[in-house]
Amino acid sequence: MAKIVGIDFGAQMSGNTVIAHIVDEKIEFNQVVKKQNTDSWIKATIKEIKPETVYIDAPLSLPKAYYGRGNNFHYRKADIETRAMSPMFLGGLTARAMSLKNSFKNVAFYEVYPAFYQSTLIKSNHYKKDIDSFLFELLKKIPVNLHGTPTNWHQIDALMSLLSGLRHQNNKHLEIGDINEGIIII
């Protein structure tokens, strides 16, 4: 299986970006320190881990209207189907994610959406409310080995980004959206 990482992509300098990856059959979490340049940290961490594939919780494309193929300048088909925020509303985050992807020509990047993963596969009432109860439900449905317990929702979302990637690697994933505009992997 390919070496993969899952990323919960947060605002620059916020300390909310987390990379989940597998080391010795256990999932580990690396989280950027608050006030550290997130993009530089991600690039250095990706160079250190050397994944073949990155699954990132951030838009990696713009609505097709920007390429003269449609008239919806706010949402992609994938955003509408998953009820995600517009890549245009996320603006700078979208641009940073697309730039990050462009920085790694030999690494495959896929967009994931942990909140939709949760609502589609885990279906917990505890998401974003009670981390221990949610993690218990997640691990009951998808047993994986963790190196340490996630301590915040960013680590949980990075975990679900990685789990979406594992589903993709095993051809058990869903592809939501339009291949010519942008796909979200679940």
3D architecture notes:
With 186 residues, this protein is of the alpha/beta class. The chain has one domain: Ribonuclease H-like superfamily/Ribonuclease H (Nucleotidyltransferase, domain 5, 2-Layer Sandwich). The protein contains seven helices and seven strands, in the order βββαβαααβαααββ. It has helices spanning 38-49, 77-82, 87-90, 92-103, 114-122, 131-141, 153-169; strands at residues 4-8, 18-23, 26-31, 53-57, 108-112, 175-178, 182-185. Strands 3-2-1-4-5-7-6 form a seven-stranded mixed sheet. Helix 5 crosses helix 7 (153-169). The longest helix is centred in the C-terminal third of the chain and has 17 residues, at 153-169.
How would you describe this structure in keywords?
7 helices; globular; alpha/beta; Nucleotidyltransferase, domain 5
Could you outline the blueprint of secondary structure elements for this entry?
Layout: E1 4-8, E2 18-23, E3 26-31, H1 38-49, E4 53-57, H2 77-82, H3 87-90, H4 92-103, E5 108-112, H5 114-122, H6 131-141, H7 153-169, E6 175-178, E7 182-185
Parallel strand pairs: 1-4, 4-5, 5-7
Antiparallel strand pairs: 1-2, 2-3, 6-7
Helix pairs in contact: 5-7
